[in-house]
Amino acid sequence: MSGMMNAGAAWRLLRTDPSVGDQRVARDTVKRVVGFARPHRRIIAVFLALTVIDASTVIVTPLLVQKVLDKGIAAGDRSVVTWVALAMAGFAIFSAVLGVVSAWLSSRIGEGLIYDLRTQVFGHVQRQSMAFFTRTQTGALVSRLNNDVIGAQRAFTSTLSTTVSNVIAVLVVGVTMLALSWQVTLLCVALFPFLFLASRWVSARLAGLTREQMNGNADLGNVMTERFNVGGAMLLKLFGRRHEEDALFASKAAVVRDLGVKITLTTRVFGAAMVLVPALATALVYGVGGQLVISKSLSVGTLVALATLLLRLLGPLQGLSNVRIDIMTALVSFERVFEVLDLPSLVQERPDAEQVPPGAASLEFDDVSFTYPGSEELSLPSLEGVARPESGSSGPVLQGLTFAARPGEMVALVGPSGAGKTTVTHLVARLYDVDSGAVLVGGSDVRDVTLQSIEDAVGYVTQDAHLFHDTIRNNLLYARPGVGDDAIWGALEAAQIATMVHRLPDGLDTVVGDRGYRLSGGERQRLAIARLLLKSPAIVVLDEATAHLDSESEAAVQRALDAALEGRTSLVIAHRLSTVREADRILVLDEGRIVQQGTHGELLAEGGLYADLYRTQFLDDSAVSEEAAARA
Ligand SMILES: Nc1ncnc2c1ncn2[C@@H]1O[C@H](COP(=O)(O)OP(=O)(O)OP(=O)(O)O)[C@@H](O)[C@H]1O
């Protein structure tokens, strides 16, 4: 921690973006930053005090050198030499201890701040509505936040301490040098503007290059994350795109390589200037100071002290010339984090929200219309260009939907692809809010009850049931933490998957793999059903996807579904003949409207869209024969 700027600090300084210095940061941001610092204020105060002590003691060694040369060596006084040498050693130990303590305090402040920001951001982001997650490239958001959180932390550790330390060092060293020899000091200082100009030029150029390199790296990262997950890797293989992918990756990696070379070269030019200016200034000190020593107006000790002090003035002076950019960079990082923290969720819980009535099992849609939120309702300016949200709204997806499911009833949704079936199911657990009309669970508008109670009342099995990369046990416990193995096996049994789990070498402790890819589609779906059974909600929403199941696992899934639906109110996106036959009511959706509703028999007799869907979607050969048998 000397006053001299270290290489790391110089490098960071060069990598910051000078254009940031021109940005305006809201006054509120500064206030909020202070708010974040408040819990750490005691440590910050001690840390700053140590920084001041450290910066003001940079003159100690040069002054001791002066003393040993003039009063010790030149005067032939051995005791002075001994004392000064001991003082030097003592001071070195003191500095080292100070350095360690300062680093410890600084990391406690920095890591504490990172912790505060991270936990707040995580809590806030996970409470965002689904619209946020469908519109934002979550990977980009995560990496952006990681960088910004670290940028913000830097404000409290390096930026704050280097600024304080630089100011003190410039004052103390400057005054000491002037006191030692104002003529030599002024001469040397005249050289510094050249160094500043060089560093300005290099930092502007380097900032541009660095930004390009970051984009290039982000591009590379995207290519890798998209291709190295199970889905991407599979697509790549199935389409035989190895060579094209190699070429694509190579071209992107080449951009990063070339930029890396340019950056090194530019940095080197700057490094040369960093070495050259102090070397020239030192030459000047000895050239001019040497003359003064010969004419006896300066002592040798003072000359050497001046030369040493000069080197300690350079770094702090240069650091101060960039202080505005440094501070703005940190504030901009804070602002980006705050922007995410300030983003309101499109689905808000009312302050006076109540619980869903106990045992609520009815479901009602009352004249519901819905449009997916557009980017104007949900935008994150700092992510534009990184995550590219689609623009504009898609127009109404559901219009004037009215239907009801009494407790224990099964309502089936059918309709062509894109008719809005999945969207209807999303509205039940308030993943989105309706534009007009109301969704009622147990007679309460879902907007009047707590999100937790609605999430508890409704259970989902979606088409591509998500499993965490964790053990089967932990995936199941997600639905109901703390239940014993008996309950888990009971649910697995009912979901027709117990035998398969028993056969696995690690049983319940088998890790399911990324997104559950180590399991077959049917197995994954049955695990999801077991998870639902453990949760045991009164209302079940499920998307029957059977396209990827063979007839055996389809039969198993069917039995599992029967268990899941038993005694519960259900809303089912139906793909099976048996489901539509059993449904108490079938809603036929087309372009976001209910065009027909009734039982299977009624709708078949009515003809129209249902009859068409029946022929194209539900009726396969076996069904034909079943129907024929039933009629006979
Ligand atoms: N997150 C979203 N943002 C904007 N539009 C969406 C979103 N999800 C779906 N849509 C649009 O809403 C319409 C209805 O989609 P939905 O998924 O509800 O249809 P579906 O009947 O379930 O279709 P499928 O049977 O093919 O699954 C489609 O036009 C779709 O493009």
From TrEMBL:
Membrane disposition: Multi-pass membrane protein
Keyword terms of this UniProt record: ATP-binding, Cell membrane, Membrane, Nucleotide-binding, Transmembrane, Transmembrane helix, Transport
Gene3D superfamilies assigned to the protein according to its UniProt record, in alphabetical order: ABC transporter type 1, transmembrane domain (1.20.1560.10), P-loop containing nucleotide triphosphate hydrolases (3.40.50.300)
Chief localisation class: membrane
GO cellular component, one term: plasma membrane
Domain of life: Bacteria
Domain ABC transmembrane type-1: 45-329
Subcellular location(s) of the protein: Cell membrane
PROSITE patterns documented for this protein: ABC_TM1F, ABC_TRANSPORTER_1, ABC_TRANSPORTER_2
InterPro entries: AAA+_ATPase, ABC1_TM_dom, ABC1_TM_sf, ABC_transporter-like_ATP-bd, ABC_transporter-like_CS, P-loop_NTPase, Type_1_exporter
CDD domains, alphabetized: ABC_6TM_exporter_like (cd18550)
Transmembrane parts of this sequence: 43-65, 80-105, 167-197, 269-288
Keyword Isomerase carried by entry: no
Pfam families membership: ABC_membrane, ABC_tran
Start and end residues of each ABC transporter domain: 363-616
UniProt GO molecular function: ABC-type oligopeptide transporter activity; ATP binding; ATP hydrolysis activity
Stretch forming the signal peptide: none
Family: Belongs to the ABC transporter superfamily. Lipid exporter (TC 3.A.1.106) family.
The protein, known as: ABC transporter ATP-binding protein
Native organism: Nocardioides acrostichi
